[in-house]
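Reopening this one. Same input as before:
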Amino acid sequence: MSLQKQIMDAMIIAMKAKDTVALDALRAVKSAIILAQTEGGAKGEISDGDEIKLLQRLVKQRNDSAAIYSQQGRDDLVQPEIEQAGIIKQFLPEQLNEEEVAKVVDEIIAQTGASSMKDMGRVMGMTNSKIAGKADGKTISTIVKARLSS
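Same output, byte for byte:
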């Protein structure tokens, strides 16, 4: 089932349940998908990889907003952002934990023979392509830096 179909089905459920937080999150996803499809003037489908990146970006935006609201003492706005991020995460593939990401990074370092921070770009690129959508870039970057600097 396509992501758009899943989003529409979830929107119908949220409407029936009168869940405004879920509905706001799902509408944002739908809007972002439509915007990505119409980008460049041509109406077309976006790839699964692009859909995952789009969802990750939306989750990151929600988490960043929640952090900013928390710093500003706007606790009334923090919870809806966190809830929306959780709703959007439901449509992402299962995320790898740090241990699993570290294992993949170690394999790639062994394959490439990377030994210093000069090789970080190559290791990051290969890791991102291998586990696309299953871990965020910040986690991957942190682990790669730790492995290559030691």
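So the earlier flakiness isn't reproducible anymore. For the record, The first helix runs from residue 3 to 17.
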